Amino acid sequence: xTYRTEGVAxxxxxxxxxxxxxxxxxAEGGADVVVAARREAPLRALAESLAAETGRRVLPIPxxxxxxxxxxxxxxxxxxxxxxxxxxxxxxxxGSARAPVEKSDWDDWRQAFEVNVVGTLEVSRxxxxxxxxxxxxxxxxxxxxxxxxxxxxxxxxxxxxxxxxIVASRTLAREMGPHGVRVNVVTPGYVTGPPLTANFQALAxxxxxxxxxxxxxxxSTAALRRHVDPEDIAAVVQFLCSDAARNVTGVEIxxxxxxxxxx
Length: 263
Prior knowledge:
The structure is a single chain. The chain is of the alpha/beta class. Helix content is 48%, strand content 14%. It folds into two domains: 8-191 and 229-255, NAD(P)-binding Rossmann-like Domain (Rossmann fold, 3-Layer(aba) Sandwich); 193-226, no CATH class. It is globular. It starts with 7 loop residues before the first strand and ends in an 8-residue tail after the last strand.
């Protein structure tokens, strides 16, 4: 099912995986889309591909979410080029360094905080201000972490900053509700794609297992016995950015094949 997503949408972290799938889905729903990511050449190629496939205007803006001025500038540029902002999807993330809290490097925590909290919220609040000025409301969707439901060792910087982002986003939802601006969080489970395959391959190498066995074992921890595709996340994001979700705000929606429930 395709939900109508009119107006202008910004997708941060649109270069691949979930972000790319979200950009495509929003464009298919009728939105003109700003795609933002750090690497310029792949971003421009993505914009050309999406425009050709959907017939929508697609504006590529290279930017670094750790640079606050670039976060604000992203929203300003979107308004200058496309006239308004109606939806924002924040997919970009940081904090992959693995270390126990007692031994972790504060630089890793700072980087995770700058991207997952400050950068994500700067884009969100700049967009929220614009939506408030425009009138008519808008939708902001953040990407959460299933790791908050079952904490894993050595991922303290990632899960801690994601937790802070979620609480701040719910607060923003409360504050901007009177202006019709909705803020929600989508929390993925294991999402198929090169990063997940690389993680599973590393685990297979460490344990002497075949890759297929590791993939099956991980899927067995979810109630539905399968992993999640980027398109599954994008479908829920499209719903949240549409008028069908006009009364949905301040919530976190897991799209995890029942991983939180367990296998």
